[in-house]
Amino acid sequence: MKIFTRKITLFLTLFALGFAGALGLGLLHKSQDPLSVQAAEGQMVKMTLKGLENKEYELDVYYDGNYYYLADYLRNIVIFNGSDIEDFASYGNNFKLYASRNGEFTDPTAVTLYYNCVQVYDAYTEENIGVELKGLNDNADDILNNATENGEVTVYAIAHLNNGANRYNASFSPQWNKDDTAISHGFMYVGDGNPEGTDTQGNYYHFYQQARSLDTIGHEYQHGVTRSVWGYSPSTSGDYGAINEATSDIFGMLIENVEENKNASSPVPLRDESWDNGTKATYDGTPLYSMRTKSPYYRFDLTERTICEHGEEGHNNSCDYGYVHYNSTILTNAQYLAWKRAPQAFTRQKIGKLWYETIHHITPESTLEDFALESLRAAQKLDFEEEAIETLYGVYTAKGFPLCKVTFEGADGKVYHTEYVQKGESAATPSKQPVKESTVQYSYSFKGWKGDLENVTEDITVTPEFEESLRQYSVSFYLESGELYKSETLPYGALTLPTLPEGFEAWYLDAELTKPAENAKVEGDMKLYAKAAPVKDDGADLGLILGISIPVAVLVAAGVAVLIVILKKRHA
Ligand SMILES: [Zn+2]
Ligand SMILES: [Zn+2]
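Above are the sequence and the zinc ion SMILES. Below is the predicted complex in structure-token form.
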């Protein structure tokens, strides 16, 4: 299968059909250049390439026997040159691959972008950020086919879009399969910034080369991962979009910290500055987004959430799609504050796990409030320490999130289960019923929870109710020979002894027949033993005589009866 042409031309029809599908159908328009890459012939080769700031990177690049490409089919990353492309949305564009005969790449932006994309991809491990993307070492087809397993995304990263004009920032645009079910790939636009200075409105322009900024590339890449988890939806705006942006900021931050640790002689922990994103993407090093320092643009409290009057359908670029970037910091600042208060509980790996788990419970209708609740539930599901969950809950409620905590106590008065709900909603009961330990005298069965679980409007504690009954014990009765006579289940209390078997005279509490069982109490499982009555000397003879005398008596009686009948007949 041909996986690259030197020049890929995209047509409107191609998008209508879905990019991957179109390729499979061979609709991809080949350029005049006869060279094409055969995946089967190609291989990844190590090269040293020069990026921005004259940094040298050792990178795997794709080589097909004729050309080298800034592409990695194991990691599903392709770098395109977008400099001639005015605007992606107008379609009919030419995205040019970076191809080189001799392996020299003279565009340092493209090299740095490629390097950072690889760093981002490699950061997704369980150990690093708690999220593993499958697909590394998958076959080469993945690069242009649907690579959606577990959040894997094929990323086409585009440098110099429209020669940088109007594209000073970076963004991500997911593309969908023709059945709209899953992401197949995404376009990551990475702008060159704008000339430093002040515009006519007095806004300071400070965007610099975005490719330099690893947390920015991580942010955009995570958009692909998030959308892959969420599946198809036409747009991410409003609260849904703010959750999307918040998630990207968190992963951008985590990924940069992975990189910081790569060549460090001692561990570099998350620290305050980690929570500033995009510091390498500005001329003066000011963060593009800060999750810790308030600015006029970014909201920290729920009460500051900016709702756009357009309504969901009408959002556009002018309102930041419903203030998605403005409101996202309400969530990221909550995570920052929770980390600040309990850094041991919110490690890089745990934060990644928490957010990744949480976004699995987010739908296009989800609100910031829903996110907060789902993150608490995710923390519970992931077995975060109680203290960590409590910290997060405290941060949310301080920010004005209308959450309530329902504490279910166990029989011992300790916390048995905690349930978080939105204010005014009802709380579900724990899936497992609590158990109250039996005493010697009583057993307890769970009856229900005492407390109003509907319309919860404040933090409440709910206690369990138990029904008390006399504890039942197993009591076994044996003959002194050891043969089982009968078994009974009897309640705690006075022991009613069963009728002794024939030939036995008394019950004992021990096999040695030393402790008489009269007045014994049932206070546990018991074994009792029947003592045989002493055997009398004439016992056997008596039995013998009776054995014979009974038939004799019957014969005598029968004889008399016959006689009576005869006599009666005579009288008749
Ligand atoms: Zn974003
Ligand atoms: Zn709007």
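The mean pLDDT is 83.
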